[in-house]
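Let's inspect one such protein example.
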Amino acid sequence: MKLTFVQMRMELSTLLRNYEQLLLVLVIPLGVLVFFGNVDVLPQGVDLAQLLASVVALAVMSTAMVSLGISTGFERSYHVLKRLGATPLGRDRLVVAKAGSVAVVEAAQCVLLVVVALFMGWSVGDVSWLPLIAAVALGTFAFAGVGLLLAGRLRAEVNLAAQNGLY
């Protein structure tokens, strides 16, 4: 279990050192929320709650598909995954560590987006938290599956272009 947490911490520190990934997982979702929350360009009847739900979905896609898929694709091309799979960490713990790091980043994204939305005037009101958590989890599994499928099938550079194109 300790090896898994060490690897998860390593995955998180790698993400924090990579400014492109920080832009992808933090700045873009926050920018979309703040911009579209303050500019009157949304269709009539779309309120801040609907915008927040859409931006949470964008944040999940950013982290689970694009960030995970691109980093895994480059790790695969540099043979990092083979080397880590042969260590005492093993493949199972490596996958759990990657999943854990995605969960931590998504939790931080959701908290940050909710706090910003509260400052923008959103009210928690009748939020159904359980379906929201289930939707985020299902979206994470779906987008991570797509991201890892592309990372496992394409060369790193082609994977990068495909992930960004889908995004």
